[in-house]
Amino acid sequence: MSALAAEKGAINLSQGFPDFPPDARLLARASTAILTGNNQYSPMTGLPMLRDAIVQLVERHYGRIVSSQDEITVTSGASEAIFDAIAALIRDGDEVVLFDPAYDLYEPAVTLAGGVCKRVTLTAPDFRPDWQAFASLLTDQTRLVIINTPHNPTGSCWQAADLESLWQAIASRDIYVLSDEVYEFIHFGESAVSVHKHAGLSTRSLVVSSFGKSFHLTGWKVGYIIAPAELTVELRKVHQFVSFCTATPLQQALAEHLLALPDASDELGGFTNKSAMY
Ligand SMILES: Cc1ncc(COP(=O)(O)O)c(C=O)c1O
Fold it and tell me: Ligand 1, atom 7: nearest CA belongs to which residue?
C-alpha cells in the first residue's frame, strides 16, 4: 500500500510514519552510544536505565507508578509487544474482541495462537464503540479485548466514559485488555484517556507504547509493554525467544534523552504545528 501511495501521489493512511525529522539531540545520543561501545545485547527485559526512564514518563503523564523490574518490558517495537502478549494469553478456541477497523497485526496474531476474533464495528462520525453491541459479544470463551486509542486509522480518541463502560462490561469476567496506545502523544484536538489512568482496567491490562511513534523514529523499532507482574512473567516467556532484546544503543539513547530532558515528552503532542504531513 505504501509503494502504491508513493506511485499515485496519494495520502498514505496505511503506515503511520512522520515526514519531519526527529529531535537532533536524540540522534546525536544514538550516534554517541554506538561509538562509545554500547553495542552488545541488553538485558532481556530492556536496559535498566530505559525502564527507569519509562517509570518516570508514565508517572509524569498518567500519575501511575509502575515497577521497572516487574511490570515493564522493552520490545522491538510495539508490534513485538502485541505479538508477545497475544501469544502468551491466547490458546485454542479463546475469543478475542477487536474494534473494526483494526490495526492489521491483531487478527493474524490471534489466529496464529489458535484464537477466534469477534468484531465490533466503529461507525462515523466519532468512531467510538457501541458498548451494548460489545457486551452482547462476550462469552465464557472471551479471553482478551484489544483496544487502540488514539485510533489508527480514524484518529478517534476514546474518553473516560468509554473506558468505564469497558470496565463495567468485563469487571466480573476473566478477561484481559490489550491497550494499544502507540499514538498516545499524537492527537488532533481532544486527547485520549489512557488505561494507565483507570484504576480497575490498569490491573487487568497490558498497555503498549512505541518510542518509534512518539519520537518520530519508526525505523528504530523500540517499544515497550506495561502489564501487571503476573502477566509480565508470561509475556516475557515469549519475548525471550522472539527477539530476546532490542537494539542496545537505541535504548541507551532514548534512556539518556528521557532522563536528561524529562520535559521533552511534554512537547511531543505539539508536533502537529510543525508537521509537513497534513
Ligand atoms: C495501531 C498501531 N499499533 C502498533 C503499531 C506498530 O508500532 P511499532 O512500529 O512500534 O512496532 C502501529 C504502526 O503503524 C500502529 O499503527
Answer: 78
Sketch the domain layout of the chain as residue ranges: 43-261
Q: 246: Cβ below 6 Å to ligand 1?
A: no
Element (H, E) at 144: strand 142-148
Fold of 43-261: Aspartate Aminotransferase; domain 2 (3.40.640)
pTM beyond 0.90: yes
What's the half-sphere exposure (Cβ side, CA atoms, 13 Å) at 16?
Answer: 22
Helix (H, G, I), strand (E, B) or coil at 148: strand
Look at the chain and count its residues. Answer: 278
Q: Over the stretch 42-60, which tens digit does the pLDDT of each residue have?
A: 999 999 999 999 999 999 9
User: Ligand 1: which of 79, 106, 215 to mutate, most ligand atoms within 8 Å of CB?
Assistant: 79
Sheet holding 95-100, edge to edge: 72-75, 223-226, 205-210, 176-180, 142-148, 95-100, 116-121
23 CA distance to ligand 1 centroid (A)?
Answer: 20
The reply to whether ligand 1 has any atom less than 6 angstroms from the CB of 75 is: no
Mean pLDDT of the chain: 93
250 lines ligand 1 (CB under 6 A): no
Q: How far is the CA of 209 from the centre of ligand 1 (A)?
A: 9
Flag whether pLDDT at 83 surpasses 80. Answer: yes
Beta bridge partners of 224: 74, 209
Region for residue 221 given its phi and psi (left: phi exceeds 0; alpha: psi -120 to 50; beta: otherwise): left
Question: CA 255, CA 65: separation in Å to the nearest integer?
Answer: 18
Which residues are 75's β-sheet partners? 223
Phi and psi (nearest 5°) for 169?
-75, -30
CA of 271 to the centre of ligand 1 (A): 18
Distance 36 CA to ligand 1 centre (A): 30
